[in-house]
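hey can u check if this looks right to u? its 933 residues, i copy pasted from the old doc so theres a chance i mangled smth
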Amino acid sequence: MGFKKKQMLGFGLILLFLAILLSFMMITLNNLKSSMTEIVENRYEKVQASMEIRQLFSRSDREILFAANDANKEERAESLEIINENHNLIESKIAGLSGSLNKAKAKQLLKEFETQYASYSITEAELIQKIKSGNSSDNLSSLMDDQREKRTKVISTMDEFKDYQEGVMKDTLSNSKQTYEDMIGFVIFAVILSILVISVTVVWMIRSTSKDLQSITKVIKNIDFKNLSVIPRIPVRTTDEIGDIAKSFNDMAESLEIYNQKEKDFTEKISEQNWIQTRVADIATMYQRIVDVEVLADRFITRLAPMMGASIGAFYVKRGEGVDMRFVKLASFAGDGEDSGRREFRLGEGLIGQCALEKKSKVIEDIPEDFQLVTTGLGEVNPKSIVIAPVIFEDEVVAMVELASLEAFTKLQKTFLNQVLDTLGITINNVEGRMEIERLLKESQAQTEELQAQSEELQSQSEEMQAQSEELQTQAEELRMINEQLEERNRETEEKSKELQVAKLNLEKQAEELKLSSKYKSEFMANMSHELRTPLNSILILSEMLSDPNDSKLNEEQQEFARVINSSGQDLLTLINDILDLSKVEVGKLEVVFDEMNLSELPELLHRNFDHVAKKKNIDFIIEKSKNVPDIFFTDEQRFQQILKNLLSNAFKFTEKGSVSVQIKKADEENVAQWIQTKGASNWVEIKVTDTGIGISKEKQKLIFEAFQQGDGATMRKYGGTGLGLSICREFAKLLGGWVIVDSEEGQGSTFTFFIPSMPEGFKNVDEAIAASPEVAAANHDDSAAPFGDQGEPDAGMMDDEDRDKAKPFCNKTVLVVDDDHRNIFALKNALKHEGMEILTAENGFECLELLEKGNNIDVILMDIMMPGMDGYETMTRIREQSKFEDLPIIALTAKAMKGDREKCLKAGASDYVSKPLKLDQLLSVLRVWLTN
């Protein structure tokens, strides 16, 4: 038995006997207390109460006899008053006893007493009434006899109740005495037994705990604490706690030895990481001020090869596109003239071409003996290892690097190569962008010189025209005579011109008023866009973070909730843009982008968006798609989906029971021709949305397609909505070359038919401009614009997830978020902190300038434009006035998105521009560009 078990057993027995003894004493004392309490406080009080009731009853009986026989009028009144007081006291006593009784027989006896006393009280009241009336004792004899009979029964019942309570009190006292005697005997027995058990347990514990301790002490004394690489072990001879101590000591010794080994391994990994970071930083510094790809290639391969331990290397850059695309060698390291590798190759040609095609690196270790590549002054040596790696930018291979070494490449060198190539693609793209700008500048200068030559030629032609003008003057003299004849007619027309001038002034005044009204409307729409997009910004960012399966700590269901919230936010953003589109619809201009879409995915898309609505309303949702419907269809997918979503939303909103069905089939061109022209379309599709809802009356079927109109349009209408859905559907259908019609009967449901053409070439007569309301139009397109392409920066929004994960430029970077909206600050703070950035916040321009003056090491600023006190424009201007902040990246953020805001932000000092609601990937891409450069 173990030491711990021995102690627990010994002390457990002691505590058990003590607990039993104390428990029995407590129970016995409690019983004694209860018995005495019942005797003194309960039974005695009940007996006392019954005696008092009997005395009061007897006194009332005597007063009745006195009042009926011997008392005069005054004494009789006094007796009657005493009887009444006694009656009230008796009733209160009975009520007190009724609430304190706890035995069935006592309750039964008290109930009988109450019944009998109630009967006696009735007789007593009649007797008192006759006494008050002055009746003689002879007239009261029969009533007195009845009263005496009832009095006898009441007294008998009360005596029986008192005797029962006294008997119970005697029994309780007897039980208490017996309990006390039992307790005394048990306590004496328990004390003797406890002394014996405790004595035996203590002796047994002391004799069993003095073994095996000397061996443990001896081993511990022999430990060399200065050298923990080898620690002596304690031999385990027992399975008790002493044996456990020996095992624990041995485990601790083993852990210390393992820890020493891990510490050595960790130091080695840190050294390797420092080696990689130092060389990556060295190469990144080398990229600066390089404006030519060939210079970049030569410096890169010259710097990289020694770091990789390579004996020879080559650098290839992509040239051309499509079938003309090839990779040309721009630089080499330790090459042998024209024979050092291929001059160029195409995708799939050789191992290097296959690596470029697959976008994967390849390391070759098993190299044939006759592969002679590395050249020295004494001869040629075959390499032991070759590595071929692609340089990728935006999921496209832009260059290839090939290195060969006399030794096998280590894992550390391969890791270093991958990190270097992650940023090389961005650098190549930047350098090529700068080269393209220089080329365009040279072309512009050449065109300017050509224009100057043309200007001189035009001047000579002008001189010839002057000579011709002199000839015309002669002819003008001849015409003067004719003009005099016409003057008379001119005077007649002048009066008409004055009238027209007045009309023109009136029209100009009205046009000015209309322009001012349009300006107010545009400003209102822009401000409304800002107020709607600002809270939507934080909703989209936070829901996107929560729905990320790689980073979120939520379960799958909660992530799905977050994705639904994000999807709903995107739908709300689309709805906001649709409302803003009304200003464009009014002047008949709206951007449509005809592109390829897959109609085979349409049923699944509709089910995903509306199955939950149908389930919630307990109605059927049926989608039928004919086999002859083409899978590939050319139209504006965003407008197409918006039309279907609006039609289905209306169908579900106005349908309480039954079903909503969608039928997709190829349309008959002759049937479509009766509604709209069918020229220019490769084929037509007909989509019918049918519901079993409330239907639409004939007189309202044209009205529902007007803006802000509904079939259920009364002030007390049952269904909500703005009345824009069907209006937007028909206007969008027009822009796509289609049409929407309705067939409905009130109370029988509705069928909306959407005809749409497939337009591979789009509309040739549609303007590419989209500027219905010049200011508000910008709000719908700034979101997708690249960040200032004229600065030569790459389209960072197109970087794929793999490149972003590799670059990781955000760690240990400090960003200052300047925004007066706490929701946006909270969303941006959590999103950027998740990327490893340090966050500072300011609510206006003044706080921003104060933080900059404090000397915080800030790497980039996210600047909101609309802020109280000092707005973003003024803040950026003041920052740029300080020379030490000339190169600090400032990214402007705004939800107002007025036309010209981009240029205004640039002029104020912004480095880049992103409109709200922010797309997290786009914002991170823009930050990555500026933090990398």
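Residues 713-717, 765-807 have pLDDT under 50 and may be disordered.
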